[in-house]
Amino acid sequence: DLGLRVYGESMPYRALATAHTNERGTFEIAGMAAGKHVLLFKGNPPLRDRTAQAEITEGRTTDLGEIEMGEGGQISGTVLLLPERSPVADEEVCVGLSTVSPPWKRMRSGAAGEFKFDALPEGRVTIWLPRLAISKGLNLKPNEQKKEDLYVGGVMLRGRIIYGKTPLKCTVTVHSMAKYPPGPPLATVQTNEGGMFDIGLAEGSYEFM
After folding, report:
1. Collapsed DSSP state (helix, strand, coil) of residue 176
2. Which phi-psi region, left, alpha or beta, contains residue 187 (left: φ > 0; alpha: ψ -120 to 50)?
3. Is the link from the previous residue into 45 a cis peptide, with omega within 30 of 0?
4. What is the largest CA-CA distance in the chain?
5. Which of 44, 109, 146, 180 gets the most CB atoms within 10 Å of its CB?
6. What is the pLDDT of residues 99-144, one digit of tens each?
7. Checking DSSP bridges between strand 73-81 and strand 150-152, what pairing results, if any?
8. How far apart are the C-alpha atoms of 33 and 55, rounded to whole Å?
9. pLDDT digits (tens, 9 = 90+) for 23-82
10. CB atoms within 10 A of CB 59
């Protein structure tokens, strides 16, 4: 009796169908439109939620094979106010497929601005602050523990580091150009597997290294 929901891959993200597995763990959903879909499997404790992608062809049955349920991933971080990078306490934080779909979980940031979501499904995940309409999308691997901060105020700088056409996983540091010689870095981040990074900063001029 494992519950699952099916969402379209593009906006608006809303449940297109729901179903439950039978005593053998199998399920079947009829009448689905052709296209790409995201399936959310709602795990009963101790099982964790899990997502899977499916591409449905009209007039054909799509077999997903076996979906292995196991421990989920974790996202933790801090809500920070720019430019001081001071913690923002008691701010509602949500996690889900997208900001326009119902959140899987929600909580309020702690006294130090901290938040943490456990037992999350792998795949595409979004964390957001609904009151301020601030969000960040990411991909979560099975059992991955990821730290992602959310910034309030200032600006968000986003970039990609490549060598030729190959994305690089490296460290990016940011220094203020208003000071010479530059002091300690204002921010240090790691690029992801796609070479992407984002940094929240106050308005100003900066040098990236």
Report:
1. strand
2. beta
3. no
4. 69
5. 109
6. 877 888 899 999 999 999 987 877 788 999 988 878 888 888 877 8
7. parallel
8. 10
9. 888 888 888 888 888 777 776 654 566 677 788 888 888 888 877 766 678 899 999 987
10. 6
